[in-house]
Amino acid sequence: MTATGAAAAGDARGAARLLSIGEVLNLLRPEFADVTISKLRFLESEGLVDPLRTPAGYRKYTPAHVERLRLVLAAQRDRYLPLRVIREQLRAAERGERVFGSFLGDLASRPVGPAGELASRPSGPAGAPASRVSGETEAPASPAPASVTEVGEAWLTRQQLQERSGLDDAGIADLAEYGLLVPGPDGRYGPEALTIARIAARLTQYGLEGRHLRPYRGTADREVGLLAQLVLPLSKQGGRAQALETVHELAALCAQLHGALVRQGLRAVLGP
Predict the structure, then answer these.
(1) Which of these CATH numbers, 3.40.50.300, 1.20.1050.10, 1.10.1660.10, 3.30.420.40, describes 8-122+144-150?
(2) How far is the C-alpha of 41 from the C-alpha of 145, rounded, in Å?
(3) Sign (positive/negative) of CA torsion 238, 242, 243, 246?
(4) How far is CA 119 from the centre of its chain?
(5) Cα angle at 92 between 90 and 97, to 5 degrees?
(6) For residue 108, what are the contacts with CB-CB under 8 A and spacing of at least 6?
(7) Cβ neighbours of residue 271 closer than 8 Å, sequence gap 6 or more
(8) Around 134, how many Cα atoms within 13 Å sit in the side-chain half-sphere?
(9) pLDDT digits over 69-113, tens only?
(10) Whole-number Å distance between alpha carbons of 114 and 68
(11) pTM surpassing 0.85?
């Protein structure tokens, strides 16, 4: 095989590993039910992932991009981390720095380049930039601006909540009885309900039920009253998008403070 033929074969093998934005969405949805194409574009606009582009403008994702998206989405869902913190930790890992308490696990030891690229990017046609590839098969995604309001605000029916959280109907009813799950006027549950139900499902393994978790609702209500004084003026000044980003950051900080206080208290109970 000639050098040109070998290069072409290598390009074909590299291109075969690339995914369209729709294929990425299908891979992520089993784990992140509320992810949308708008959300993937939003994460790109925020510098969390940088997919490759074909000459015609098609987005193409490598396996490393998909793994990076999983990490970002899990950090938002499970740790309530604001995008700014996620972005800073990712960049620190890319520089080879060790981030204590990071959500990244062993990412720093993996060959991930800037914004989730594989260390060896597939190259496009001769003369094309490395960030552009050939072989597009679907309409190019338009770079429409996204906002925080577009990001994952899926509402779930009671049955969907059961299926995705692992709780049965009795478990959902138990949490609803103690005010931990509150359906909307149409009977569906808001975006945070799935997180609450999943956490509650794990806590039931330790014998904790709705009646044990009721004090958390009281604590949350007091925090809402306190933080609303900060968020409401922001919504009037900078709009809902800015207010929502602040909500994510405040919730993350409060969750970290609460966790640290609980660990401190339990450490005292266990003794030196």
Answers:
(1) 1.10.1660.10
(2) 8
(3) negative
(4) 23
(5) 130
(6) 93, 96, 97, 98, 99
(7) none
(8) 11
(9) 999 998 888 777 788 888 888 888 788 776 655 666 544 434 444
(10) 11
(11) no
Q: Which residues contact 124 (CB under 8 A, 6 or more apart)?
A: 11, 54, 55, 130, 132, 133, 134
Taking a C-beta distance cutoff of 8 angstroms, is the pair 61, 102 a contact? no
pLDDT in tens, 125-167: 333 333 444 444 444 443 333 333 233 456 889 998 988 888 9
Does the domain at residues 155-208 carry the CATH identifier 3.40.50.1260? Answer: no
Q: Determine the straight-line distance between the first and last CA of the chain, rounded to whole angstroms.
A: 69
1-19 tens-digit pLDDT: 444 444 444 444 444 579 9
> How many other C-beta atoms are found inside a 10 Å radius of the C-beta of residue 187?
9
- Residue 57 in tokens: 């403008």
DSSP string, the chain: --HHHHHHHHHHHHHHT-B-HHHHHHHHTTT-TT--HHHHHHHHHTTS---EE-TT--EEB-HHHHHHHHHHHHHHHHH---HHHHHHHHHHHHTT---TT-TTTTGGGS-B-GGG-BSSPPP-STTS-TT------SPPPP-----GGGSS---B-HHHHHHHH---HHHHHHHHHTTS----TTS-B-HHHHHHHHHHHHHHTTT--HHHHHHHHHHHHHHHHHHHHHHHHHHHHH-HHHHHHHHHHHHHHHHHHHHHHHHHHHHHHH--
Please give the radius of gyration of the chain, using alpha carbons only, rounded to the nearest integer.
Answer: 22
The candidate with the shortest Cα–Cα distance to 63, out of 36, 23, 30, 34, is 23
Higher pLDDT: 150 or 235? It is 235
Q: What is the mean pLDDT of residues 265-270?
A: 90
